## 1
Amino acid sequence: MSSARRNPLNAAAMHGALILYTLIALFPVFVILINSFKERRAIFREPLALPDGESFSLIGYQTVLKQGDFLLYFQNSMIVTVGSLFFILLFGAMAAYALSEYRFRGSLLMGLYLALGIMIPIRIGTVAILEMMVATGLVNTLWALILVYTAQGLPLAVFILSEFMRQVSDDLKNAGRIDGLSEYTIFFRLVLPLVRPAMATVAVFNMIPIWNDLWFPLILAPSEETKTLTLGSQVFIGQFVTDWNAVLSALSMAILPVLVLYVIFSRQLIRGITSGAVK
């Protein structure tokens, strides 16, 4: 990075590559947003043109709000996403603190075992997970999704947070112990505030896959009362006829919360990534 700063050509090339990647990443979002405000014919006639007085239409948003129970789907997605992130950050931070702070027999093997969870996709165990949820009576409940997503996100959370917690000063923790603080107080009041950038990084990395997931809601919670936003949007996609206005409008409304949360956590995310790179 220092050589890139000294050489203007390298810096310009780096910034150009980053700008190009950003444009490529945002292009599908831009296409979805502009076409959600068009009538059906304009979507296929000029998909890249901005909506004008002739092509502008809100029929897609009206269909989503009338035909599908969008508010219920949105509420279910929020409950599942927020609940999963809460447990991922809570249990992941606790496990990371234990692995980074205490040395015990089998700690290395436990760390390697958790690392396997990053390499092996959880969808491989879909059949076993479904059997477990049926046996416990959790099918068609939001708890089934929260538990699965928590198990899915914990390995990455422990891996990231443990590296950051190893950098927390031992003198600070020992000073807390000398002052009579319990381990829980040291963890919640001294350690967690210092690893907030890392927790924001973990939250963003897990939030988007959970919010956009279609696989587990379709298998574990397909009932009308427990449908998530991604699954609920499928009602507008038929075998022979697809209501593209409604599909694009539903996708636009689904993108908005993710963008808002990313903007909120972006500073902490950047701090977490850059500090992790320096370490």
## 2
Amino acid sequence: MTPTPLATHVLHDGAGVPLVLLHGFPLDHRMWSPVVAELPPGLRVVAVDLPGFGHSDLGHTPPTLEAAADAVHAALRHAGEGNGAVVGLSMGGYVALTLAERHPEVVHGLGLVDTKSTADTEEARAGRLATARAVEDTQTLDAVMGMPDKLLGPTSKMERRSLYPTVDHWIRSQSPSAVAWAQRAMAARPDRTDVLHRFTGPVAVVVGAEDTITPIDEAKHMVDAASDATLHVVANAAHLSTLEEPAAVAQALTELHERVVEQL
């Protein structure tokens, strides 16, 4: 089946190897804007809205990360983008690993930000499926409107209260069908640590020091699994480090891009 076309956004014009950015749940490409503003000039940055999110249609996309990865691959090829360093936060990290598994020729480097390579626990899987049913039954986003408190950490709660309405607005911009699709896709994902075992390119693992959703132990697990990985712990940030401490994340991604270019 031909993947439903996804929206791609050139966030930073430049030449050469692109940084391809995949957003977290339940957000869209806008979550990368603070990081992109901190990147050096001349670096090409392309963001993709995953199925149903942002400007992308959901269509008949099956609720799997494999379908999402295939759709990302098709979107990049359709946009004429070259192979690059693929960076994903949370759900975007799951898709990045799936892309490296299914279309390894596209992925010269991996940036795994506030994410993990392991599968959900049974409890977490059940929670995702319950959320999917809730948003479908009510046709509202009520079941995920508490997420800003989970995505943002204690430092943001004390010192960056202005971030909360921003994240709230991004979530309210999404559709119940996309939220349900994503929850089912993430619930069905397998452990992909073996993808990191096989991956030979540079890997940057970035994690907020205050992240309780995908904590530092999960980040260290990925670093240990990869053959060429660096760990970047971002102080004063939680699961949405791209918004909480964008300069630190930008530095880690710039270094990843440099490592990718050096190996080509």
